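[Automated response] Your request has been received and processed.

Submitted sequence:
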Amino acid sequence: MNILCLMHADFEGVGVIGPWAKKNGYRLTCVKPYVREVLPAADGFDFLVVMGGPQSPLEKDRFPYLGDEITLIRSFLDQDKGVVGFCLGAQLLGEALGAPAEKSPEKEVGIYPITLTERGRQDALFLDFPHSFAVIHWHYDMPGSTSQSVVLAASAGCPRQIVRYGPKAYGFQCHLEITQEGLALLADKAARDLTPSLYTQSKDILLSHPLTEIHHKMDLILDRFVALLKDASSHQYDNQRPQG
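Generated structure:
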């Protein structure tokens, strides 16, 4: 399994996705477009992970490389390959499908619960998950909506926390991948985001929250996503085999 990962800041790494890939023997290739690293073609990769970052799709003129990323996301989708986006990555996934990112009703910075919708509780990635569970939030914007997209989870401050854009395309406005060290680094490098608001925790409260259960859910979601891709490929192969 070859995975391409797009990153957007030196202080936002791949989190637990790295150890998960290594544990499963998957190859993880990380590219940093924000320092002018060249984006590879979708060929040769099984799926794409698009990470979060301080940029906003609402300011693409300031970050022209986001347009190149959107084009690459479209390429993965056109080739019927999987795409998972986190935070900024979820917004870019929506943009690739013609759904412009929007301002979230509330800024959310902290560890708060999200609630699965009825469709979310039926989705293959979240079967047997609790109705509500804690995740990490760090955002001002949220992904757009298309006529085909399905909201799988929402929070008190954001109506689109997890969006399924297609059978192999999921956008997570929230984070489940950030490690304790990564969260501390983010709190330091993006300290101004901790300005008090209705859904902003203090640095002390934020960093005191255990992340073990959040990370367990991340691993499970990623395992299920890979199983979904393999199952889809298996069905495609079966449909292409000559009969008789």
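Summary generated for your ticket: The first helix runs from residue 17 to 24. Strands lie at 2-6, 27-31, 47-50, 82-86, 102-116, 132-142, 150-154, 162-166, 169-172.
If you did not submit this request, please reply to this message.
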